[in-house]
Structures are given as structure tokens and as C-alpha cells.
């Protein structure tokens, strides 16, 4: 650990120094990539003691690796949590949370709009395991409380829903859950610190697709779960490193450690660009609605002001009016998206590049049309992840694309 006490240090300082110390062997400043599957013991006795946990040390990289552990320490510090499990994908983190907190006969509550593959886990995988799930609008606190049963163990939702951009009041849900003995897990992929701190709001577990803002460079698939050590320890021991084996590679962990050092700067730019692009889109006469928590028109803008500390992020979704110059809104929208030159048509988000995609046929395509309708994911909705380019260029790209209509 850094010699500097990071407990009360700012986000930028923690993102650079947490989990990192000069390498003990040669003093390397950057965390070395321990690209090894196994570790050698001096003696049988030492190996046995490391395996039994009697003395600290590494044995096999699926269970622990210095580069991966440095990443876990850093992400835990950034989310203000005690412990972290890094996983090889965001879905690895989702799997770790549900398999680590639920068992046959339990009941879970899931936000009605979640990422498409997460929806499949809750609707299909958990049903096979005999775990009942109720889907609720987590903005409706009365509906959440009414859905709680004797055997409710978990309330799961996304801070900002993918792709509808609905914001949930984490503190209010956590209070209800804790009164009924359930735990709260929040997917914070869309709003990582320094935007939203779910653990400080009262959640028990926070998870991420680190593929997105945490790595921030579009070159890694990874995930993470953060929370109290008493919750994280068993998930790591029994689920992620054993049943699922979702430990990330040392190389990918190194890339994320590298990406995290500039997280504060990146997020500030994403937020600044995001707000400017959302305001621009709202001003375009062809646009019917922009869903972005930083806009006053967003239904939970007041909650966003409190929970997001003025940082509204770089993701938004929008739809065009029903009729645009003789075309239906969705046809017009496809024309605009196809005409973009700077933004790429691609799923994922939180990259330096501006990315745009159509949730109904891409990220949420593996949900049934009924599940999409229940989640409120409209067929003509477009999701945009505003990148780190100069904002005038992003807006100019949209201006030339709207000009094709
Ligand atoms: C909100 C959210 N959670 C989880 C995931 C899954 O992450 P990954 O693709 O890293 O497995 C995604 C992926 O897009 C996501 O958007």
C-alpha cells in the first residue's frame, strides 16, 4: 500500500495510488504483470501453509495473483468498499452475485429493466435453479415493498437502467430491503465513482462491467463485485474462483489498472461532453425525447442531482418523432445513425470513442419481445455513449447526419 494515508484522499489520488506500491523485487513503479498460472514453493511445508491460509502467499492464479489483487484493492478503494472480486467479464460479476447470494427456494426482486444478458440470467437461469424472481419498477418504492416475501434474499437493479436511463434511489431501496432482511446489489456500470457510490447510499454489493468506464479504453472484457469482506469472501471462495472460474487474466488486470489511473479525468470529460450532447439533441426539432439524468426533463432529475453529485455521465438514449419528413421516426433515426462519420455503430459504452447502437436489435436482442415490452424498451430507442472526442466535433457529426433527413 502507498505510504500516504489514502483513507480520506480524493478520488484522483486514490485511483492512482490505491492497490499500487513499488514492486518489492526491483522497485518497478508500475504494477508488474505476473503472467503465471502457478507459483513455486520453497518447501512442501511452505506450500501446505499457503494452501491452508496459515501464511499469506500465492499458489495458483485462479485463486489469487498479485496483479489481479492490485486491481481488486484499487477498485475496492474507488467504490469505498472493504473487498473486491475482479472477474473476467461483467456477466461473471452478475453470476457471482446471484449464485453467491441465492439458493433454491429463495426469492429475488429484480429491476424491471436491466441489461439483456442479465435479464436472461434472472428469467431463465434462476428459474432452472428453483429461485423465484419478481420484476418491479424500482422507482416505485411501494411496489418494491409489496413484492417482498418471507424468503426474499436479494434486491437487484441497475443505478441507471440500460437502456432506458431510469434512476433508482439506492438509499430508499436499501432501507426497505434491510428492514426485511434482504440484501441489495446494484449494477453501477453506467455511473461509476466519482458519479455514484452505491455502498455509501446503503447497498450491500456493487458490481460493474469493467469493460466499460472502469477500464475505459475499449480493449478489455472484465467485471468486479465490491462489498463487505464478509459477503465478498464466500462469493470469491465458493463461486467466482471455483464454480465459475471467472478470475481475469493478469494482463487484462494490468490494462485496467493502467486505465484507472486517469479515471477522474476521463469521467469529467465524459460528463461534460454528455451534458452538452444531451442538450444539443434535445434542441433538434426531429427529436421527440432524450433520456439523460442531467436534463431537467428527466423524471428523476432531482434524485440525480443528489446522487450523482452533478456528474451525469456520458450515456443517453433518444427517440425521434413518430413522423419525420414523410418517414416514420425509426426509419429516419436509422438514416441519421448510418450517416454518422465520427461515432461508430457498436455496442459497449464508456470508451474514448463515441458509440451508438439500437438496443432492441443489439444489446437487448436476446430478451423476448414481451420481456422488452414489460421493461419498457421501445423498438425505436437509440442508445448513445458519448466519448472523449472534442464535443464540437461530436455535435458537428450529428448536425451533418440530421441534415440527410
Ligand atoms: C449494465 C451492464 N451490466 C453488465 C454487463 C455485462 O458486462 P460484460 O459485457 O463485461 O460481460 C453489461 C454489458 O453491456 C451492462 O451494460
The fourth-level CATH homologous superfamily of the largest domain is Type I PLP-dependent aspartate aminotransferase-like (Major domain)
Sheet with the most strands: spatial strand order: 1-7-6-5-4-2-3
The percentage helix is 25-40%
Average of the residue pLDDT scores? 96
Write down the CATH topology of the largest domain: Aspartate Aminotransferase, domain 2
Total beta strand runs: 14
Small molecules held by this entry: pyridoxal-5'-phosphate
Radius of gyration: 22 Å
β-strand amount? 15-25%
Give the helices and strands as they follow along the chain: HHHEHEHEHEHEHEEHHHEHEEEHEEHEH
Which architecture of the largest domain does the CATH hierarchy give at level 2? 3-Layer(aba) Sandwich
How many discrete structural domains? 2
Number of helices: 15
End-to-end separation: 56 Å
Shape: globular
Low-confidence blocks of residues: none
Protein name: homocysteine desulfhydrase
Family: Belongs to the trans-sulfuration enzymes family.
Catalytic activity: L-homocysteine + H2O = 2-oxobutanoate + hydrogen sulfide + NH4(+) + H(+); L-methionine + H2O = methanethiol + 2-oxobutanoate + NH4(+)
Pfam family, one: Cys_Met_Meta_PP
Describe this structure in words.
This protein is 39% helix and 15% strand. The longest helix is centred in the last third of the chain and has 21 residues, at 263-283. The strands form 3 sheets. A 7-stranded mixed sheet has the order 1-7-6-5-4-2-3, sandwiched between helices. A 5-stranded mixed sheet has the order 8-9-14-13-12. A two-stranded antiparallel ribbon has the order 10-11. The chain folds into 2 domains: 11-260, Aspartate Aminotransferase, domain 2 (3-Layer(aba) Sandwich); 264-402, Aspartate Aminotransferase, domain 1 (Alpha-Beta Complex), CATH 3.90.1150.10. The chain has 405 residues and is of the alpha/beta class. The chain is globular and about 80 Å long. The site of pyridoxal-5'-phosphate has 14 residues, from α4.
Amino acid at each position: 500500500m502507498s505510504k500516504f494515508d489514502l483513507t480520506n484522499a480524493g478520488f484522483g489520488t486514490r485511483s492512482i495510488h490505491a492497490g499500487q506500491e513499488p514492486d518489492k523485487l526491483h522497485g518497478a513503479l508500475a504494477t508488474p504483470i505476473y503472467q503465471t498460472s502457478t507459483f513455486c514453493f520453497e518447501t512442501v511445508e511452505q506450500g501446505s501453509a499457503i494452501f491452508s491460509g496459515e501464511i499469506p502467499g500465492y499458489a495458483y492464479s485462479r485463486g489469487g495473483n498479485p496483479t489481479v489483487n492490485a486491481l481488486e484493492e484499487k477498485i475496492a478503494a474507488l467504490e469505498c468498499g472493504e473487498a473486491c472480486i475482479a472477474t473476467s467479464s461483467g456477466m461473471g460479476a452478475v453470476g457471482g452475485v446471484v449464485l453467491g447470494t441465492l439458493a433454491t427456494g429463495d426469492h429475488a426482486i429484480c429491476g424491471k429493466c436491466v441489461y439483456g444478458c442479465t435479464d436472461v440470467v434472472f428469467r431463465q437461469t434462476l428459474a432452472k435453479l428453483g429461485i423465484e424472481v419478481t420484476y418491479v419498477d424500482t422507482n416505485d418504492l411501494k411496489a418494491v415493498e409489496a413484492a417482498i416475501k418471507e424468503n426474499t434474499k436479494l434486491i437487484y437493479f441497475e443505478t441507471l437502467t440500460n437502456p432506458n436511463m431510469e434512476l433508482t434511489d439506492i438509499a430508499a431501496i436499501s432501507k426497505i430491503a434491510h428492514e426485511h432482511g434482504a440484501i441489495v446489489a446494484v449494477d453501477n456500470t453506467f455511473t461509476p465513482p466519482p458519479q455514484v457510490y452505491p455502498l455509501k447510499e446503503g447497498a450491500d454489493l456493487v458490481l460493474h462491467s469493467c469493460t466499460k468506464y472502469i477500464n475505459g479504453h475499449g480493449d478489455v472484457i472484465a467485471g468486479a463485485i465490491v462489498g463487505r469482506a464478509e459477503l465478498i469472501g464466500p462469493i470469491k471462495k465458493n463461486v467466482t474462483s471455483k464454480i465459475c472460474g471467472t478470475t481475469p487474466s493478469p494482463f487484462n488486470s494490468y490494462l485496467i489498472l493502467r486505465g484507472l489511473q486517469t479515471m477522474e479525468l476521463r469521467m469529467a470529460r465524459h460528463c461534460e461532453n454528455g451534458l452538452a450532447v444531451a442538450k444539443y439533441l434535445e434542441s433538434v426539432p426531429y427529436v421527440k425525447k432524450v433520456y439523460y439524468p442531467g436534463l431537467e426533463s428527466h423524471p428523476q432529475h432531482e434524485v440525480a442531482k443528489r446522487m450523482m453529485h452533478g456528474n451525469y455521465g456520458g450515456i443517453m438514449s433518444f427517440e425521434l418523432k413518430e413522423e419525420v419528413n414523410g418517414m416514420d421516426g425509426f426509419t429516419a433515426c436509422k438514416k441519421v445513425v448510418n450517416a454518422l462519420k465520427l461515432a461508430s455503430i457498436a455496442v459497449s459504452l464508456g470508451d474514448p470513442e463515441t458509440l451508438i447502437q439500437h438496443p432492441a436489435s443489439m444489446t437487448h436482442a436476446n430478451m423476448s419481445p414481451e420481456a422488452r415490452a414489460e421493461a419498457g424498451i421501445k423498438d425505436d430507442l437509440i442508445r448513445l455513449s458519448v466519448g472523449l472526442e472534442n464535443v464540437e466535433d461530436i455535435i458537428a457529426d450529428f448536425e451533418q447526419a440530421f441534415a440527410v433527413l
